[in-house]
Write a structure and sequence with these properties.
- It is a single chain.
- The chain is α+β, with helices and mostly antiparallel strands and 196 residues long.
- Helices cover 47% and strands 18% of the residues.
- It has helices at 6-16, 21-26, 30-51, 77-82, 88-92, 94-114, 136-150, 164-170; strands spanning 53-56, 63-68, 120-127, 155-159, 174-179, 188-193.
- Strands 1-2-3-4-6-5 form a six-stranded mixed sheet, sandwiched between helices.
């Protein structure tokens, strides 16, 4: 995906994650979440463009899969700043930054503990809500999963939506751990896909 498409992609991902329990925790007020979430999603998409893969649909953008590659799955402060995570309090609000930071710190530690070896990290998978449930998400993951299998590498993700578990299991992921209140936030499921 081209960097010039980041704003449009971030708008789609803002809609895709609007009802996600993690972002309901970060931005409890829905109007504020609608306004501020696209900025947060743009950072994740920009990181994908810089160091990983961002897959989208051909033609009209229906959704995105952001994968970070083996050896490059850690979100350092420098990487976040390079992607535009600058003055986050202005874009998110101080209390939201504190909640998001606490979640990120704990989730990153769990990630590194569960899968210290090289792997692909599915950092974002989101499909525009009216188009969810039509196979778009599976298509967006297919290429990187195939590459991971060919290289005999595992894949990792975390989700705060219990209804996502069946979808990810269908694509070979299994729950490695579940945690209540990661960073003070919602219950999270950490999932690993071993190479097939």
């Amino acid at each position: 995906m081209a960097a010039s498409s980041l704003d449009a992609a971030a708008t789609i991902q803002g809609r895709a994650f609007l009802d996600d329990p993690l972002f309901q925790f970060v931005f409890p007020d829905q109007a504020e979440r609608e306004q501020r979430l696209p900025w947060v999603m743009r950072i994740g998409l920009a990181i994908g463009v810089q160091v990983g893969h961002v897959h989208t649909t051909r033609g009209a953008m229906l959704g995105h899969a952001v994968w970070l590659p083996p050896g490059d799955t850690h979100l350092s402060d420098a990487r976040l700043a390079e992607a535009g995570f600058v003055e986050p309090e202005r874009h998110m609000g101080e209390s939201a930054v504190a909640r998001f930071g606490a979640f990120m710190e704990q989730a990153s530690a769990i990630h590194e503990r569960l899968l210290p070896m090289p792997h692909w990290y599915l950092m974002i998978l989101g499909v525009d809500p009216p188009l969810q449930g039509r196979g778009v998400g599976g298509e967006l993951m297919k290429l990187t999963i195939a590459n991971a299998d060919a290289a005999r590498l595992p894949c990792y993700l975390e989700t705060a939506k219990e209804r996502n578990l069946a979808f990810y299991r269908k694509h070979g992921f299994e729950v490695a751990e579940e945690h209540a209140g990661v960073g003070g936030g919602p219950k999270m499921w950490m999932m690993i896909r071993r190479p097939h």
